[in-house]
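WARN no homologs supplied; continuing
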Amino acid sequence: MDEVHTDRLCILLDGAPLCEVTENGGITYRNEDINEPERVAAKDMVYEIVRNTAEYMRQMETAPFLKADGLEDGYKVLADFNGTVLAGVQSKHGVHFVTWDWAYGHTGVCHGHYFMENYAGAKQDFAIRSALIQKERLFTPEQMTEIYRCCADSVDGDFFELTGEQEKMIRSVQQQIEECVPDLDERIRQQEEALEQVAQQQTM
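OK structure emitted
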């Protein structure tokens, strides 16, 4: 899938060049290599992975070590707020992330939520546990998929008479969901297949 060239990593898709990851955490590409929607989506996915990896690796380089009774060495404090800590530890498989509650007057930690390499999931969990954001303000991928489907029914069907501003707003919601749920198309396909199966069972 990939090939190393001195100071850059060449990413291939279906055996053809897609883009290159630079040593400083950026990507470069040629327009002729991303001339199809699926290749554009793949390039965007590579960029997101590279951006996230560069973010937490920079943090890991400068973050202080987490000192807590009974905790193995190596964990570093990536964020600490309101009695909750987000930590990372380097392993042979990459950086693993965990959130804990401080305990025993900041001498120990408890109630660990382990996320392996899922940095985005660990950050979200930290934000919720530390009360930086309210859990009720967040939607799960399943909820966002259903909202997307309802938006599509609203603008593509004949159920409602929408003003131009309303349609524009709904389209912007769809676009926002597309950016938040990378596998949205696959989730919608699975939903449609499940609905078809239910419909077939009801007619039998």
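The beta strands are 2-5, 8-13, 16-22, 27-28, 76-81, 84-91, 94-103, 108-116.
OK
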